[in-house]
Design brief:
Elements: H1 33-44, H2 50-55, H3 58-106, H4 109-160, H5 167-214, H6 216-221, H7 223-277, H8 314-334, H9 336-344
Helix pairs in contact: 3-7, 4-5
């Protein structure tokens, strides 16, 4: 009976059941299936699969840039909006404090002169409405004149050839006639509106003149208060317009942010749809190594064995397990970022389980 010998890194095994390590003068050993799989997995790390190429869709980067730009604009404009609102509230409080001080100093003449200044305000508004109505009326008159010229040109074209009726000129004449009727209605409407606001403006001016005659003394005494109030009202209107503009900018930026999010969701759905249509990536499905337990999906395939099983004993299995352990660590370090991305997309990769039994 042969004496057992101690093999480095293994157990005592009878001589003859274990091949000695390859030395320099021996022929090179043919690669095992585990080594072939290890080489193929390492070479696949530098080659992107179709799914990884889908993840690098240029539309994603473009939409992310739009998303970041909209987010930055929202943050900046909201800061400006907060400052504008704070300034508006500060000016409003300051104006109320100064007007109260001025009112307590002047006394009851302010209440007596208030109808006069209110009438002046209404007269000013009526004057502005009169100007707007005049512009609308002038625009309607211009449209009416242009439509009449079109009718004249169309009539000349129709009458050019009395023996033959051109349908093109006839259609142009009908269209021009409709435009004349519409312009005439708009002109009459603008004329009536201009007359109405003109009467209101005249009535407001007459009331201002009447109050100015009856309240001449209190008007002069309360003038500083109402002038100060008019100044503060103008400043507040300017700040209010600024706040309104910033609110519109924030709303537009939020709209662009929402559009970018929807586009990203659509791109993600398209990628998922293409993934469901793609075949399973063969590189990602690794067969069980030597010593692995057969799972429920293994089917009829048993343990993978190298040809010449008599030459593979416990030392060969120990080396295979060490190689598989290193393969797992290398795979987990290289593919950690890709695995996180697949978790978000519902495509998390499951690593094979290696048995530690010898």
């Amino acid at each position: 009976m042969a004496e057992p010998r101690q093999v480095p890194g293994g157990r005592e095994t009878p001589q003859g059941e274990l091949q000695s390590e390859v030395v320099d003068d021996e022929a090179p050993r043919s690669p095992s299936p585990e080594e072939i799989r290890g080489r193929s997995s390492s070479s696949s790390e530098t080659k992107l699969s179709p799914r990884e190429e889908e993840e690098l869709d240029p539309r994603i980067q473009e939409e992310l840039e739009h998303l970041n730009q909209a987010s930055e604009e929202i943050n900046q404009v909201e800061l400006q909006l907060d400052e504008a609102r704070t300034t508006y509230r500060r000016i409003l409080q300051e104006s109320a404090r100064k007007l109260n001080t001025q009112g307590s100093h002047l006394g009851s003449c302010i209440d007596k002169a208030r109808p006069y200044y209110e009438a002046r305000r209404l007269a000013k508004e009526a004057q502005q409405e009169t100007q707007k109505a005049a512009l609308r009326y002038e625009r309607a008159v211009s449209m009416h004149n242009a439509a009449r010229e079109m009718v004249f040109v169309a009539e000349q074209g129709v009458m050019a050839d009395k023996n033959r009726l051109d349908p093109t000129w006839q259609e142009m004449l009908n269209h021009a006639t409709c435009k004349v009727n519409e312009a005439e209605e708009e002109r009459l409407r603008g004329e009536r509106e201009h007359q109405r606001v003109t009467r209101l403006c005249q009535q407001a001016e007459a009331r201002v003149q009447a109050l100015q005659k009856t309240l001449r003394r209190v008007i002069g005494k309360s003038r500083p208060y109402f002038e100060l109030k008019a100044q503060f009202n103008q400043i507040l209107e300017e700040h209010k317009a600024k706040v309104t503009g910033l609110e519109q900018q924030v709303s537009q930026a939020k709209t662009r942010y929402s559009v970018a999010l929807r586009n990203l969701e659509q791109i993600s759905e398209q990628i998922h749809a293409r993934r469901r249509g793609l075949p399973q990536d063969p590189v990602r499905r690794r067969s069980s190594p030597v010593g692995a337990e057969a799972g429920p999906e293994s089917g009829d395939s048993g343990d993978v064995r190298v040809e010449g099983a008599e030459g593979n004993d416990s030392l060969g299995r120990s080396r295979d397990n060490e190689r598989n352990d290193g393969d797992i660590k290398h795979f987990s370090k290289k593919k950690m970022g890709r695995t996180k991305m697949r978790k978000k997309a519902g495509m998390c990769l499951t690593l094979p389980k290696f048995s530690k039994q010898l």
